[in-house]
Amino acid sequence: MPENHIADETLEQYSLETLAVGDAERVEEHFLLCPLCQERLDQTDIYIRAMRAATSGMWSNGQRPRAALGLWLQPLFIATAALLTLVWLGGLRAGGRADAAPAAVFLTANREAGGPALERAPSGRPLSLRLDATGLPPAGVYGVEVVTASGDGHLHKSARPSGGILIVGTPAFGAGMYWVRIYEDRTLLREFELEVQ
Fold it and tell me: How far apart are CA 101 and CA 21, in angstroms?
């Protein structure tokens, strides 16, 4: 396991997809060897999504950020932002607690039936998807996406195989049926069915 972990600022840039390509590749290589940084990235993703959800629509009425600065001073808004920050920091520090750790879900190809194997995962909890990549054509990086049964996208990430497995961290999903897909360039290579309950 690597001794030097990824800096918080770098995790945020990676999550926001603002990290330079070469730096992103080094970060992804580190993720392959460091479960702690994988969990920290999952928590960063959750925090960024929560902050985006909390601030969405803040300026939808056409106000400029300077004119809306008064919102930052309202006690309810401050309390909400503080609570989200505490939840995020608590998740980072919780580390090994069962309620904070992502649920590991192993998705394997069902070669006998010729179709995807149905796997189950808990709802309301981050997931660490372990995708069977054995037998796939060699590629440095694969694209991984998670979509609903109706085709709505929920997650798009890239991952490098390690020992025939792709590891992808996700935020918590709501109950329902999902498809997890592995791509090389834009070619679909493998698909898994995932039921979140």
Answer: 29
* Whole-angstrom distance, CA of residue 4 vs CA of residue 27: 11
Measure the CA–CA gap between 144 and 168, rounded to whole angstroms: 8
The one-letter amino acid code at 156 reads H
Strand partners, 190: 182
Has domain 103-196 been given CATH number 2.40.30.10? Answer: no
DSSP state, residue 5: P
Burial 9-41 (b: 16+ CB within 10 A, else e): ebbbbbbeeebeeeebeebbebbbebbebbbbb
Regions of the chain with pLDDT less than 50: 1-2, 92-100, 111-113
Domain(s) labelled CATH 2.60.40.10 in the chain stretch across 103-196
Tell me what pLDDT residue 113 has: 44
Query: What six digits make up the tokens of 137?
Result: 């054509």
pTM: 0.48
**Maximum C-alpha span of the chain:** 62
